[in-house]
Amino acid sequence: MLDVLVGGFYGDEGKGKVASYLAFKDMPEIAVRTGGTNAGHTIVYEGKKYGLRTLPSAFLNGKTKLAIGPGALIRREVLYKELEETKAKDRLIIDPHTAVITEDEINDEKNDSLLSGAVGSTLQGVGYAESKRVLRKLKLAKDYPELSGFMNNVPEMVLDALDEDKTVHIEGTQGHFLSLFHGEYPYVTSRNTTSSGVLSEAGIGPKHVDNVIVIFKAFITRVGGGPLEGELSAEEAKRLGIQEFGTVTGRMRRVAHFNAKIAKGVARLNSANQVAITKLDIKFKEAYKVREWDRLPEEARKWVEEVEQEIGVPVTLLGTGEEAMDIVDMREKVSG
Length: 336
Ligand code: GTP
Ligand code: MG
Hints:
binds magnesium ion; alpha/beta; binds guanosine-5'-triphosphate; 3-stranded antiparallel beta sheet; 9-stranded mixed beta sheet
C-alpha cells in the first residue's frame, strides 16, 4: 500500500500532523520525506512539540524507517538537531543522491534581492542548492563520509517493501500553489510540490500509488509574495481567529477563506482520491478535539459535506486540534 500526502494550498496545511497521525494508524514500514529544509512541520504529541524540517513526520510512531528521498535536500546541522530531538538515528536512511545544502547556498540566497525581496523566500538555501544540483555543482549525500552510515537506495527499499505488501508513506512538503511548475511563478518554491513531483523526488513510478491524499486547511494562508484570491486584512483574520505565524520564519501569514472551487482544481491535478481538511476546530470552535463524525457540531458537518460535494473527492480526514491524534478518520469511506 503506497500513500502519497501533499499540501493543497500554499503549505502549512498541517501535513506534519496528518502524516504523523497516519503513521501511527497504519504503521508503515517506510516513510519517505521529500522537499527541503524550507518547510517546517510542527507536530504536537502528548503536549510535546516537535519542529521538523528534514525527517519524516512518521518518526512519532517509534517504528517506521525514516527515509530521505533522492530528490530531497538536507542540511547536516538541521538533520543532527532533529535526530537528537527525535532519538530516531537508528531508523534513518538517506539516499546517496539526496542533495546537501551548505552555508554557501544560504548566503547566496540572502544576497539575492529577488528571492529575499518580492518572492519572499524563507532563505534556507534550497533554491540555490537546487540550481547548483541542476548544474552538477552541488555535493550530494554520498560525497559526505560522515553520512555514510545512513546511505541506502531509497527507491529500491520502497519497491522491495511494496513487493512484500508492506505500507509506505511518501510525505510531500509545502503546497500545490508553491509548485515551480504548477504554482504561481515566480512566487513559488524551487521544486514541483504536487503529487507527480513528490513521486519523482522519491523515485517511485505512478502505478505503485494506492492513495493520493491532498491536505487542505479550513482556510487558506500563504507567506511571501504573490497572489492570494480573497485575501483578508490582518485585522479581519485576527477577528475571525484565523491569524497564523510561520514556523520557520515567524512571519505573519496572509489569510483567505477556504475556496472549494480552487480545491477542486487542485484535487484534480494531483489525482487525489482522498481529501484531508485540517483546523476544522478553528473554523467551528465546538469541533475542538472531537474524534468522531457524529459528535461534530452540525454546522461543521454541513460545511464538510458541501465542500466534499463541490470538490468531488471524498473527505476522509478532518483535523480538530493541534495534537497528532486530534483527527476524525473516515477513511473507511474509500477503503470499502
Ligand atoms: P508545511 O506545510 O510543511 O510547512 O508544514 P505543516 O503543513 O505541518 O504546517 P505547520 O507546521 O506550519 O502548522 C501546523 C500547526 O497547526 C501545528 O502547530 C499543528 O499542531 C497545528 N494543527 C494542525 N492541524 C490542526 C488542526 O486540525 N487543528 C488545530 N487547532 N491545529 C492544528
Ligand atoms: Mg509549515
